[in-house]
């Protein structure tokens, strides 16, 4: 894992000191409220519905046990004893006091963490495949490149006041677990003629105008990464619209300019910028990559895993659902669900964080990940240790066997926290999860991604949910629209709206009808919801949602 | 009265030559001119016209509009070696960004200079320290 250099440490300390001074200069009037706002945002500090919120970056989703313990300490000391993991591999503290924030930033710096550029019109936290370095299917670990991009983008002098926020995701595998097609820049490691490079996509994004990213360069030699990304953001900084914040993301620039003209401009800018990079970045990358060397694998006979799987149906259900193949046969990747039915998706208490840190130390080489699906991943676990690990998780209330199933729902904070929200998200997620737990249909239904956003800004990624739920405000009443057939994976597609929305107390029964219809029409358990949708299309699901007869009538009324 | 901020702190504006818009004709071969650029300038249009230019002022209509930083870098990349000035609503917190992007100085009005006095700008005169991008570029 990456450890801060002296440069990194000095930087985050200096940055925390600068923010402390900015808070003081706001209070003495040197900075107006308008001027202070982007400065606090680029240090991760939002003003939410009830209080400030501090969003802390977990670069490429990777954490050590010590870092997780420090998050627990911060949650206890300066918040209400919990944190919320987000879809962009950040953790949010919802109740800090402004005057405590510089001390919180100092506590983060103590363990090589920060909240820099987790908000504002800046290049945000660079995210990566949460299975990076462990997955059986990747070309190479994408995290050294993500760390290189983190360093390059941090306090980049040209790019602190972009037209709008800018998000980069990177993956090393064809299977897209990082939603790269819904990012401003998506990077996929590929190989061509034995050389390593990137497929580069631009212009993806969700929000009120969802777009799937387009390929701007099919193969970029990896040595050209920084100058090429700099060229993209440089072109965007001058060309992106500043007259309307809803049309300011690069997806709109690409849409209005055309991908071919964007490519022409980017390639021309790249040709100018390329000579500025003398090759030092390659040496720094090599130093970073060395720190991501795999742990010293402990070879252990996986017999205890097979014995437990044969003997214990609860363990078997968990192992079949939450455990993924590792690059080594005698190891596994464990996803710890933060979606126990009834819980707030993505929330973890300080005690749970500490337990996870302890379990990472005991069984998983002291490494943890945060997934964009708001769960915690232990990326390297010897299979022999799985029964003990499962028992400990179960005892801590973290044993839910639901990864990738109905109740593993992405939900934004919604109206319970967010100033932008138009509807509640968390209670809808909780009620869907508890309903299907009561029906005992979750494992029968199989792989399914439900994603819920509490407003049109789409933080809950509803457009790319197999089932997406969008909460809106209709004349003061919550109304939930359903989209079907979306995907955020390598087959990314924006979902299709089913028709008129549903009231708060109608939405969970509507989802139930939808899934019962799926079970009735599927060709067998191997045909997932998404596969069935692609085979049969909207009509049978629409009938299940609205009834065969009054569909037209309700559509007219909408 | 405008204030010119450099690494040494506040000073007066010594330039007396006036400014031209880029679309205006030059003063004649060999005669020094200064250009005034809006934030929507495409720096590419200036590529072959910088020979007699000794000073370029780039306007910042608001501190949240960061186009000027990219314009400055583009001008430096195309070889402009004269004086480069950021002018308008640029705050002390952006001084290091301006210097790292290639500006030599920042021009602010008296009100801003009173609200953000010299020590707040001098605090970032160490702009060469802690610069990730410069470190990666070599």
UniProtKB/TrEMBL annotation, chain A:
GO molecular function: 4 iron, 4 sulfur cluster binding; heme binding; metal ion binding; oxidoreductase activity
Keyword vocabulary terms for this entry: 4Fe-4S, Heme, Iron, Iron-sulfur, Metal-binding, Oxidoreductase
Name recorded for this polypeptide: Nitrite/sulfite reductase
Domain Nitrite/Sulfite reductase ferredoxin-like: 52-110, 329-396
Pfam family, one: NIR_SIR_ferr
Domain Nitrite/sulphite reductase 4Fe-4S: 119-271, 408-519
SUPFAM superfamilies: Nitrite and sulphite reductase 4Fe-4S domain-like, Nitrite/Sulfite reductase N-terminal domain-like
PANTHER family on file: BLR3264 PROTEIN, FERREDOXIN--NITRITE REDUCTASE, CHLOROPLASTIC
InterPro entries: NIR_SIR_4Fe-4S, NiRdtase/SiRdtase_haem-b_fer, Nit/Sulf_reduc_fer-like_dom_sf, NO2/SO3_Rdtase_4Fe4S_dom, NO2/SO3_Rdtase_4Fe4S_sf
UniProt keyword Kinase present: no
From TrEMBL, chain B:
InterPro entries associated with the record: UCP030820
Entries under Pfam families matching the protein: DUF934
Domain of life the protein comes from: Bacteria
Organism: Palleronia sediminis
Protein's name in the database: DUF934 domain-containing protein
